[in-house]
Amino acid sequence: MASLAAHLLNPFLRYQVKRKLSHAGDTASIRKAFESRLPVPRGVSYTEAVIGGIAGEWVEPAEGAGPTMTLLYFHGGAYMVCSARTHRPITGSFAQRGVRVFAANYRLAPEHPFPAAVDDGVAAYRGLLDQGTAPAHLAIAGDSAGGGLALAVLLKARAAGLPMPARAVLFSPWTDLAGTGASAIENDGRDPMIKGGKVPEGAAIYLNGADNCDPLASPLYADLTGLPPLMIHVGANEVLRDDSVRFDAKARAAGVPSLLRVWPVVAHVWPMFHSFVPEGRQTLDESAAFIRGAERGAA
């Protein structure tokens, strides 16, 4: 059963985010809709850094034994908005749970359209490997567009012959920029944040004329053979629900271990709201345990 907090959050988001996004006609308007900041986890240090030529920040526990797993995290925001800083509610929570995080500030559209974000993501991934991070101690994650980017980075890294990380975690990933999932229509009125009809508009800004079925833009259309074990979280009422459901099915058909969790009621990328939505804390608990389990050889 969904929490009362999850139910109460949705009308607030419908007014504060979905209403603004529905009327946004340009990138500046979209960025303004995401101006608000959420509470940042305590007991965590945030240190600016450059990895593989890509700026970002290390997010680490301020005290205690050093974590043994490193996570490369890509923030969401339709490839146009947000940053490592805006997503500290998620990256800081991973650090609280014993995972060292590098949050990358990849280049954003429209100033830097596809494939700039993918190139930056691979550069950051390669940089972590070059610094000596063992693949067995490395995971990759992202939310929404950042989830799609994490998968694109895996695909391009595989093509380049780079070793795969131990695990990947995805929160409401955007895997189909063609917007062919039934949930884009079925959940248009249910999703408290995203309007289904706006998804192709956002994709077009990022793609800048590129094919919306290019696997590096829409990983749903890729050959997924050889990807690391996945954990995917998505909300049942999300416009992007089927981006996760179909990706999970295709991954498992390709022999990739994939754990899909479809949550009732929750909003898009609800772990961002973990400070008052218990489902957010539970999702982060499960995801951090999945990442740490790689080192123990857990299934």
Give a verbal description of the structure.
The protein has a single domain, classed as 3-Layer(aba) Sandwich (Rossmann fold), CATH 3.40.50.1820. The chain has nine helices and eight strands. With 299 residues, the chain is α/β, with parallel strands linked by helices. The protein has helices at residues 4-23, 27-33, 88-96, 116-130, 145-159, 183-186, 199-207, 241-253, 278-296; strands spanning 44-51, 54-61, 69-74, 99-104, 138-143, 167-171, 230-235, 258-263.
Summary of the model, kept short:
The chain has 299 residues and is an alpha/beta fold. Helices cover 37% and strands 17% of the residues.
Helical residue percent band: 25-40%
**Order of SSEs:** HHEEEHEHEHEHHEHEH
Uncertain segments of ≥5 residues (pLDDT<50)? Answer: none
Which structural class do you get from the secondary structure elements? alpha/beta
Global Rg: 17 Å
**What is the helix tally?**
9
Q: CATH superfamily membership, which one?
A: Alpha/Beta hydrolase fold, catalytic domain
